[in-house]
Every structure is written in C-alpha cells, then in structure tokens.
Design goal:
The complex is a heterodimer of chains A (about 400) and B (about 90).
Chain A (H helix, E strand, L loop, with lengths): L8 E2 L31 H6 L1 E4 L6 E5 L4 E3 L17 E2 L15 E5 L5 E3 L1 H5 L3 E9 L22 E10 H8 L7 E6 L12 E5 H4 L5 E6 L2 E2 L9 E3 L12 E7 L6 H4 L3 E3 L17 E3 L6 E4 L7 E2 L5 E8 L5 E7 L7 E2 L1 E2 L9 E7 L5 E11 L22 E7 L1
Parallel strand pairs in A: 6-15, 19-26
Antiparallel strand pairs in A: 1-2, 2-3, 3-4, 4-5, 6-7, 8-9, 9-12, 10-11, 10-15, 12-13, 12-14, 16-17, 18-20, 20-24, 21-22, 21-25, 23-24, 25-26
Chain B lengths: L2 H14 L14 H8 L6 H5 L6 H13 L9 H13 L4
Helix pairs in contact in B: 4-5
The chains are: A mainly beta (about 400), B mainly alpha (about 90).
InterPro entries (chain B): Cyt_c-like_dom_sf (IPR036909)
Protein name (chain B): Sulfite dehydrogenase (Cytochrome) subunit SorB
GO molecular function (chain B): electron transfer activity; heme binding
Chain lengths: ~400, ~90
C-alpha cells in the first residue's frame, strides 16, 4: 500500500538544487526565497514552504497531509504548466498509488450494459486532445478579505495542460444510458482516512457528461498523468472548476435522482445569482445556493513581480495570461497608472477556447518611481473581472483584477 | 474502503507525524489534545494556515464540522480544550 511517498525534498536557504525527478530547480527558486502576497493570512505565509513532492519540482506547500501544493507564479510565464510544476490538491489523505495494469473503470447504474474497462480497453475509444485550464474553485481563497477558512491558496491553484484521452460521451454511449438518467456520480481511488468521513464523490449533470469536450484523460502534456494529478486517468471538464475533474477515476454511476453526497449537497456551493455563469447544475440547485460550475473570467500578470525594481530607460514588458469558462478571451486591457487609463494588450497564440491565452503589452516608463500595473480580461460573451470581491462563504471565484506595483529606478 | 485498510491508515497517520515534523504548533495548554485529535486525519499546518482570523466561534464551527460532518472521533470533553487552545494560540487577536 503506497500512500504519500514521504521522501520530500525541502529547499532550504542555499538549498539542494536537484529534485526527486532529477529536474533542475529554476534559477528563481534557488535560495528558496518564497515571496507571497501580503494579503494572505499571516499564518498561511508563515507555514508555506517551497517543497517537492516525489516527481515534482518544489511547489508552495500549503498542507502536507492531505497534500496541497501550489504552483509558484513564475511557471505561468509559459502558457502550458509543466507536469512537474502542476498544482496538487486533495481533500482526503488516503491516496493509493494506482497501478496502470490493475486499474479498472466501472460504468454502471442506469445503463443498458454495465462496463468494466481496463486502461488498454479505454484507449481503444477514439482519442482526442485539448488544451484546458484546471483551476481549483478556491484558487486565491487566501486573498479574500475578510479571510475565510480552507486551504489558503494564493494565485497558483491552477494550471493549463494539453489533456489527451477519450470522450466520456463515447464511453457512456457504449454502456447505453437509460431514459430518465439525470446525473453521473464520479468516484476516484483516493478516499478518507476514517470510514466515517464522506468519500470525495462528485456528480455531474448528464448533459455535461455528454459534452464533446468532457474527457477521461490519461495523458497530460504528452506524458502519462503524474501520480499527484490523477494517474492513470482523470475526468476533464473544460470550463468548469477542478472540483469535477475527479482524479484516479474508478467509477461512473449513472443515476436518475440528484446525488446527495456531502461534496455535492454541502460543499462547493455558491449563492444563487451572485456570479455570472451560463451553465448551471439545476438538479442540484436550491433556493439559496447552487453548485459551483463554470470558472469566471480571470487574468494574471506574470512578467513582473510585486516590488520588483526595473531600470528607467528600458521598455517594460508587461505580460500574462487570461482564461475563462471556454467562451474565449476577447480582450485584455492593461493599466500602467493604477487604473486611471487603460490600453488593449496584444493577445498571443490561441491554443483553444479552454486554454490560458497569453497577452503582452510593452511600454516605456517615463519617470522614476512606483508604477501600479493592472490587467483585466473580458471574454466573448462580455463577462469581465471585478474590482470588488464578491463575498461567498467558501471563498470561491476570486477574479479581482490583478495588480502589481513595481519601482522604476 | 475496507476496515483493515482504515485501521492501517490510522496507524500510518500516527507514524506520518514524523514526516510532518516541520510543523511546530505554538506551545500552550492543551496543545497535546489538539495534536492527538486533529492529526488523525490531517497535518497540523491546516491550523497554522488558517490563522489568525477565526474567533472562538469561527474555530468552533470548524471543529463542529470535523466532528459532525467529517466523523472525527473527538471526545466531547476534548472539544472545549481544543477550542481554548485554538482560540488562544491561533485565534483572531482580541
């Protein structure tokens, strides 16, 4: 029984430069000075460390067990997040190391012919690949004011990857979904430490499961899924927050009544009507709240860091990424004067509507002193980012306009 | 998950503490009660990470959730001791 492999590597001051997989730690991580937003709870800043899980480069440790590790912001300078730097998020600490040859996926419930698929059998369905952002519902929770309890993430509980797998739709069609089916109940091999703790089981509306972009993926950026990201297969629900992207996927149960597990009926819910979403999970909605579904439009400045000192006389390359629920980024506006005036940034390569979209804007600072830089994305259906946080009890959907102050010297 | 596996995991959880030795809770009354109970299911950095912004009521909501929803086997008489510690050492400054 392999649980969490424990041979963590810690990067101390002047620390080790080789991680478990033999990867060189990037230059910025040497010395392991961990810059964290001042807005995080004090205790979250103090307890965070740069630390490598086996097979990963040093990430920002939020909690050891279950493992919650955040991608340092420097990795978002690339459109695709390297597998070894991809964030890790678990609710429960019993995480088996699943073996590819013994793994099975069971499809049952309201179907004509229940299936048990091995990895080889799964691979026989038509294979597709798409780029999509996987973002934790609670990404940036630590930046909520007032603070809300939970994993106090900064900006890095997200990543963008090319996911390769098969359409969930094709698998469901092979099993033959019966009339009256409503939701798909999804379970992974990971589970709780105590029997009484509700297992992490999610449900998805049948219509979303039948979407051509909903995949069972077994590859990420051209490699098998890393253990910590759901080996050997996980669900990919492009546009929706990562809570539905069940890792180590082991069963899909088709049901005709709303699934009432804790992780659906109590957790991952947002107040009704507070956020601009198009796709709703109506069979799980109550008068007061509703399951989180689509990601809200968002962006991040990645080319400069808070407090960075840059020389006068050199052009400043302002660059970053933007993403949304898959409507596509239409525009990224930037401000170099604290939000008084705005200019359009230039959008970079489009890797598909579910991917990070790179953007950049070059300008020449005219004087010494502090420049407050902002970026604001708008998608093709007119959704944009907020300047005031939309409060909600669990700290989801943080898409405040990102702001970075630099000093021109 | 079967019962044997659960039992093994509880043992493992206790052993795992050694690997989480980087986590040092603030010394204080009932620190041992907190460590003994909370570390069954998760590392103690969850407490540090969620500080200091919860008042006693906030911590009470968290501990109640752990018992009622997550099934944490915390003895009733331990709950006020845990809350005293969390409020004093990791509670919102008064």
């Amino acid at each position: 029984m392999g649980i969490n492999r424990r041979d963590f590597l810690r990067v101390g001051s002047g620390g080790l430069l080789l991680a478990g997989g033999g990867l060189l730690v990037p230059a910025w991580a040497k010395g392991a000075q961990l810059l964290q937003p001042a807005a995080l709870p004090d205790g979250a800043r103090e307890s965070a460390l740069l630390e490598a899980l086996p097979g990963k480069v040093p990430l920002i440790k939020r909690s050891y067990r279950p493992p919650n590790y955040e991608t340092p912001p420097e990795y978002f300078r690339e459109v695709f997040t390297p597998n070894k730097a991809f964030f890790v998020r678990y609710h429960l600490a019993n995480i088996p190391e699943v073996e590819a040859r013994s793994w099975q996926l069971r499809i049952g419930g309201e179907v004509e012919s229940p299936l048990v698929l091995t990895l080889d059998e799964l691979r026989r369905f038509e294979t597709v690949e798409l780029a999509a952002v996987c973002q934790c519902s609670g990404n940036r929770r630590g930046l909520f004011q007032p603070h809300v309890p939970g994993v106090e993430w900064s900006y890095g509980a997200m990543g963008n990857a090319r996911w390769r797998g098969v359409r969930l739709r094709d698998v469901l069609n092979k099993a033959g979904v019966k009339k009256g089916a409503l939701e798909l109940v999804l379970d992974g091999a990971d589970g709780p430490v105590l029997e009484k703790t509700p297992d992490f089981v999610k449900s998805l509306p049948l219509w979303k499961g039948l979407d051509e972009n909903t995949l069972i993926a077994f590859e990420m950026n051209g490699e098998p899924l890393p253990h910590w990201n759901g080996f050997p297969a996980r669900l990919i629900v492009p546009g929706w927050t990562a809570t539905y992207w069940v890792k180590h996927l082991s069963s899909i149960n088709v049901v005709s009544a709303p699934f009432d597990g804790f992780w659906m009926k109590s957790a991952y819910r947002v107040p009704v009507g507070k956020f601009p979403v198009v796709e709703r999970f109506l069979s799980q909605e109550t008068a007061a709240n509703t399951p989180i579904t689509e990601m809200v439009v968002n962006s991040l400045i990645t080319s400069v860091r808070e407090g960075e000192r840059l020389p006068l006389g050199k052009p400043l390359e302002l660059a970053g990424i933007a993403w949304d629920a898959g409507y596509g980024i239409r525009q990224v506006e930037v401000s170099t004067d604290g939000g008084q005036s705005w200019r359009n940034a230039e959008l970079g390569t489009d890797h598909g509507r579910f991917s990070f979209r790179p953007w950049h804007y070059r300008f020449q600072p005219r004087h010494k002193g502090r420049y407050t830089l902002l970026a604001k994305a708008t998608n093709r259906i007119g959704q944009t980012q907020t300047f005031e946080l939309i409060a909600n009890p669990a700290g989801y959907h943080h898409n405040l306009v990102h702001q970075v102050a630099v000093d021109i010297v | 998950m079967n019962k044997t596996l659960c039992a093994l995991l509880v043992c493992w959880s206790a052993l795992a503490l050694a690997d989480e030795s980087a986590v040092k809770l603030r010394p204080g009354n009932n620190q041992d009660v907190v460590a003994r109970n909370c570390a069954v299911c998760h590392s103690l950095d969850y407490i540090q990470m969620n500080s200091r912004f919860l008042d006693r009521k906030g911590w009470e909501a968290t501990v109640t959730k752990m018992v009622k929803v997550m099934g944490a086997p915390i003895k009733e008489e331990d709950v006020p001791l845990i809350l005293d510690y969390l409020d004093q050492q990791y509670g919102k400054p008064k």
